[in-house]
Amino acid sequence: MSDVHPDIIQCSCGQKMRIPAGSQSQVFKCVRCGALVDRHPTKSRHADGDPSTQAHQGENDPLLNLFLSQGLINEEQAAEALAEFVPSKEKIFETLIRLQIITEDQLHAFLAKESGTAMISLAHFTIDRHLTDLIPIELITSQWVLPIDKLGRSMTVAMVCPLDTVAIRAVEEYSGLRLRPMLCKASEFQISLNKHFRHKSKEPGGLTAQPITRTMIPPKKQSETPTQEKAATAAKVVDFREAIQALDTLPVPTKIMNLVDASVGTDAVGLRQIIAAAQKTPPFTARLLSNANSQAYGIPGQVNSIPMAVALLGDEAISIVTMALPKYTTADESLWNPWNHFSQYVAKVAALFAGGSGRVVPNEAYCAGLLHGIGVYALAAVAEEETKHIDPALIGPARLAVEEQLFKLCHNEAGAILCRRWNIPESIATAVGCYPDPGKAGSFRDLAELLFIATQLATVDGSLNRDALTLCKESFDYLQLGSKDVSTLIEQYTSQRAKA
Fold first, then answer.
1. Helix/strand/coil for 152
2. 483-499 and 330-357 helices, crossing angle to 10°
3. Which of 124, 78, 372, 96 is nearest to 236 (CA)?
4. Which helix (H) or strand (E) is 423 found in, with range?
5. Sign of CA dihedral 490, 491, 495, 496
6. Collapsing DSSP states into helix, strand and coil, what is residue 64?
7. Are 64 and 92 in contact (CB under 8 A)?
8. Which of 22, 194, 424, 480 is the most buried (most CB within 10 A)?
9. H or E element at residue 103
């Protein structure tokens, strides 16, 4: 017997939630992982051909209940969809679109608001060949789940409906991997499916590739041939690298200049204000370190923390440097808020675990954490139009995959190029360049492992992604951090955040 109280439901991730008194809702969103949990879970679906069984299954479809409860469809439309819905053959959102009850754009807009997942555009995305073998085509087409990246035991997938827990569970059970869903448009899913996957059929002349089609969304014609796309991409790769090598500045918020101006002449208080400002804006941090590591100050390549750089430069020199930097407005700043916030939390987590391990000075780890994504800002500066195709909220391994397809250059490599161009210490440059694969960092592996841990655990809102702890086990082992050490550090971080 289950030990779960009738007024309590339990998600597959283990989270238990109490049903609000008087609630008539049949579906609830997990407070931990965001998955949909059915109030009265039904048995697995089986295509037994019994219309009454299929109708009953449709009525208990959690997605249909969600669409109904959140106002995407009404009772009459739900009944119309149920009359046509065959669970063994299609998803409920396919039925709704096929019957023209909703459009693809309406579904996408609804899920963009409700799912809370990052969005990805598949229009310019090429899937690596080894990923196409991870999931059989029958499972991809039936569940609308497309693999786009794999890191360790985690796989990033594009989904037309990231709230489809049935699809997520089916793919996780088959692959043995934990899925990281991203929202994509159905039409782009169809195009990508036809681009990267083919059914094999036996013909008189041997095996031939047959295009895969779904009746819900017709495929769109592509404007460029693969050869033309490849040639254009190859030409841009050189430009991006050379452009980053030539970068002397990155824009910073206008408010930074105002804050620095107000801090000049106020001694220690002003210097603390400048340090606080640098901690919120990675491009400003990079510029301060670049100047402090110039030959003019006598210790090039050795200034590896913000307090050290600020103390060395002084408020008047920093004011002159800041005035010469390009600025962006408050409106533009909002576009960078996800990365600014994420970088701050990566820095805090990296510094905390650095102190816990005793292998890296926390101030250096903090600085490296802030700069781990400096390549994102650099790529935006040299490839503005291409960057517009990437969701600003897209962070972590999934962004690396998108950048690889757009630029053939990921932000970690771009960041390393910029750090070396700007004379930032080699320990930070190497760690920034190698943080997705710390084993390649050589003598600076300690710092790279800390960045890997921090980028896995940190989130944009400052909470910790505890589900990623298993991905960090190898890094914890390398830094000789036991499970008790990790638990203590997590409690310490949570306590500090609660007091902030």
1. coil
2. 140
3. 124
4. none
5. negative
6. helix
7. yes
8. 424
9. none
Under DSSP, the state recorded for 470 is G
Q: 347-358 as b/e, with b when 16 or more CB fall inside 10 Å?
A: bbbbbbbbbbbe
Which amino acid, one-letter code, is at 122?
L
Question: Is 252-499 CATH 1.20.120.140?
Answer: no
Quickly list DSSP for 357-386: HTSS-HHHHHHHHHHTTHHHHHHHHH-HHH
Helix (DSSP H) and strand (DSSP E) numbers for the chain: 24, 11
Q: Is pLDDT at 232 greater than 80 in this prediction?
A: no
In angstroms, the CA 388 to CA 381 distance is 11
Quote helix, strand, coil % in the chain, to nearest 5. 55, 10, 35
Whether the Cβ atoms of residue 115 and residue 136 lie closer than 8 Å to each other = no
Q: Are the beta carbons of 376 and 317 closer than 8 angstroms?
A: no
Look up residue 45 and give its DSSP letter: P
Q: What is the pLDDT of residue 74?
A: 92
Structure token digits, residue 328? 């962006």
Cα–Cα distance measured from residue 207 to residue 196, given in angstroms and rounded to the nearest whole number: 17
pLDDT of 405-438, one tens digit each? 888 899 999 999 999 999 999 999 999 999 999 9
Cα–Cα distance measured from residue 263 to residue 315, given in angstroms and rounded to the nearest whole number? 7
Identify the CATH number of the domain defined by range 104-223.
Answer: 3.30.300.160
User: 């991730």: which residue's tokens?
Assistant: 13
What is the C-alpha separation between 121 and 189, in angstroms, rounded? Answer: 9
Nearest to 63 by CA among 213, 157, 167: 167
Decide: helix, strand or coil at residue 148: strand
Q: Are strands 178-183 and 154-159 parallel, antiparallel or unpaired?
A: parallel
- Number of neighbours of residue 73 by Cβ within 10 angstroms: 21
* Predicted TM-score of the model (pTM): 0.58
Closest to 113 in 3D by CA, of 71, 156, 165, 169: 71
HEC readout, 209-253: EECCCCCCCCCCCCCCCHHHHHHHHHHHHHHHHHHHHCCCCCCEE
Query: Where along the chain do the CATH 3.30.300.160 domains lie?
Result: 104-223
Which residues of the chain does CATH 1.10.3210.10 include? 252-499
Q: What is the mean pLDDT of residues 156-169?
A: 90
Contact 252, 287 (CB under 8 A): yes
For residues 441 and 159, the answer to whether their CB atoms sit within 8 Å is no
What is the predicted pLDDT for the residue at 288? 93
Residues 338, 268 contacting (CB under 8 angstroms):
no
